[in-house]
Amino acid sequence: MPRNRKDRPRKQQKKRSEGHSFERFDKRKLAPPSSVDPARAKRRVEGVEKLLAGIGVPPQKPFKPDTFQLEALSAIETQDVLVTAPTGSGKTWIAREEIRRLIDAGKKAWYTTPLKALTNSKYTEFAEEFGAENVGILTGDRKENFDAPLIVGTTEIYRNQLFDSLRTGEDVDTDFVILDEAHYLADEDRGHVWEEAIILSPKRIRLLLLSATVGGADEFARWIEDVRETTVRVIKAGPRPVELRAAYLSSDAELYPLFGSDGGFNRDIDALEKKQKTDASRRRFPRRRR
Fold it and tell me: 116 phi and psi, to 5 degrees?
């Protein structure tokens, strides 16, 4: 037997066809298409049709304030007001109408929000409605037109102005304060800011608190009355005017209603997820051919 590598016979190399690399002769067959449960497919189609039914732009109608909006607007004249209403009910309309009355009367207002992004959004919205010359903004990194009759800013900035007034002995230059997202008072890390803003606001400044998710509204109002020695009117809106519909979008871009026809969780989603996990496991750990 040859001892040196050079003396060993070379293996015969397979010829490559022109323009093609070496081609395997043991190609694997494609897996057959996965079976689809006809009953489940039918339920999904019917459920999606029901889920999407009626979605679109509603016909335009003349605006008519709801009863709770008019009630809040009337109470603001002499009381602090806490409005709890679902998202989309028109809480901001109450604030806008009171701001409009104050500007026309030569008075000033503050509109506070918990987030810089929301503050910037409200600033743009109010500047378009009331005129840029009548609206200013105060956040940690943005200060514009701060002598305007309406100031939009974060709650922290308004609270800081209250602290400044205590040190200097000067009054806060506003007649009315809107605390949007008032439920932040229950926030573990930032809730003390709303608490301090409410406690330190002079009695002459009327407060309008807006929230869609505040819990224990009546108890909240009684606490405000105790710390401010004022009266607080609690106004609650009716059911949500904009219906919420929940759905699940699978990794295959198939839409499933989150709830079944019986009102419970759609079990077809469980079956789909189990099948996807099984298929993924097979692709990851394919069976070896013997």
Answer: -65, -40
**Phi, psi for 113 (deg, rounded to 5):** -135, 160
Radius of gyration of the chain from Cα atoms? Answer: 32
Q: Which residue, chain included where needed, has tokens 């008019």?
A: 70
Q: Which phi and psi angles does 79 have, rounded to 5°?
A: -135, 165
Q: CA 72, CA 80: separation in Å to the nearest integer?
A: 10
- pLDDT tens for each residue of 263-279: 888 888 887 777 767 76
The two three-digit tokens of residue 153, written as one number: 């800013």
CA dihedral 10, 12, 16, 21 (to 10 degrees): -70
Q: Which domains does the chain have, with CATH numbers?
A: 67-236 (3.40.50.300)
Give the Cα separation of 201 and 138 in Å (integer).
18
> Can you tell me the distance from the alpha carbon of 69 to that of 89, in angstroms, rounded to the nearest whole number?
9
d(CA 135, CA 126): 7
The separation between the first and the last C-alpha atoms of the chain, rounded to the nearest angstrom, is 34
φ, ψ of residue 242 in degrees (nearest 5):
-110, 110
Alpha-carbon span 157 to 160, nearest angstrom = 5
Give the model confidence (pLDDT) of 80-110 as tens digits: 999 999 988 899 999 999 999 999 999 999 9
Determine the Cα–Cα distance for residues 272 and 281; give it in Å rounded to an integer. Answer: 14
DSSP string, 196-222: HHHHHS-TTSEEEEEESS-S-HHHHHH
The Cα–Cα gap between 216 and 30 comes to: 61
pTM to 2 decimal places: 0.73
What residue type is assigned to position 273 of the chain? E
The residue whose two tokens read 């943005």 is 142
> Distance between CA 83 and CA 180 in Å, rounded?
10
